Amino acid sequence: MKSKIVTFFVLIVSALLVSGCGGSEGNEGDEGEVALELQYFLDEGKYGSVISLLEGKAQTKNQKIALGAAYIGRAGFSISKIIEVIASSANDTNGSATSTLISNLSSKGSATALSDLTSGKRYYNEVVSAELCADENQTKTIPQTDLCFFSGLASMARLATTMGYLGNIESVFEQDGTEDIKMKASTCAMRYAFEDENLSDDCDITSDGNVTFVQSNTTYEAISVNSAFEDGTYDYLITYDTVRSSVVTSGYCRLNDFSTRTDILTRTVARASGYYVCPLKETVESEELTVNNLIVDALNGDLDAVGAMSSSSQEDIDQLRADILEANGRNITDENTTITAEDVAKYLDLQNQ
Length: 353
Fold this sequence. Notes:
Blueprint: H1 2-19, H2 29-43, H3 47-54, H4 61-74, H5 79-89, H6 97-105, H7 113-127, H8 130-134, H9 142-166, H10 170-173, H11 181-193, E1 204-213, E2 218-226, E3 233-238, E4 249-254, E5 257-262, H12 267-272, E6 276-279, H13 291-302, H14 304-307, H15 311-327, H16 341-351
Antiparallel strand pairs: 1-2, 2-3, 4-5, 4-6
Helix pairs in contact: 1-5, 2-4, 3-4, 4-7, 5-6, 6-9, 7-9, 9-13, 11-16, 15-16
């Protein structure tokens, strides 16, 4: 079954690549020349050129689609890369098609993957709303269906990349009997955020108090998760939003300057030099990238745009959801099947062994 689903993904993505999406929108005169230039840049992988031309200036649907495609391409998930990853997943006999794709995508993104994927998805959703994509009963045009599919793939790539930040994703989906220490520490941080009453049983966490990053004017609670193995300690940031969540971070930086972000310092040297684990949010206007809005939101609906292209792929996505619910003593047939951060943390803990 997996190979059939993966083959379907390859065929549908290839078809969309050939046919394009969005349709014609008055490509005459100067506008037509700009459209040809944008298409040339996308074909050549010159995503920065598209972003420079259109960021803050995109007005038409086609321009927003091009800008969305450029951000997703810069994230490391061009159409050709997606086809490559999907095709390679067919050779893996472990797990489901969806879990294999997530695992294989998790290491493919660029350093700015999550921020770029978020921007790309936002521009796609300015053309076709997330609500429309999630509504399986709503009639969609072919261009709208295409965009929903690409938006769904962006969500899958965000989900995969986020899980890659949490730890070794293969430890979750392959269950080789080896616990990944970083994944364990990450689930401890997730549980700390939603105040799991059983946290002290198997997580050693120290709160380092509040830290405020000046350029984004955002305050977090800094925590460290201690382990008796390997490097010993991992650092995390917890939001003070209404629904608290652990933040996706990358490297270390100083509180007053994101340009100091680095991933070459050891934790001991970084902390002794006044560096803290660094959030991806760098401006007041930037969206906060958290486990909740990158993993939980994807599992609760964003991936359905991919599943809508095939009943087989939707069944596979639903099976992943069912597995997460089952790990929490819940059932896909329950009245409430909304997946929470608590559900994800327990599922990852159970799988990571």
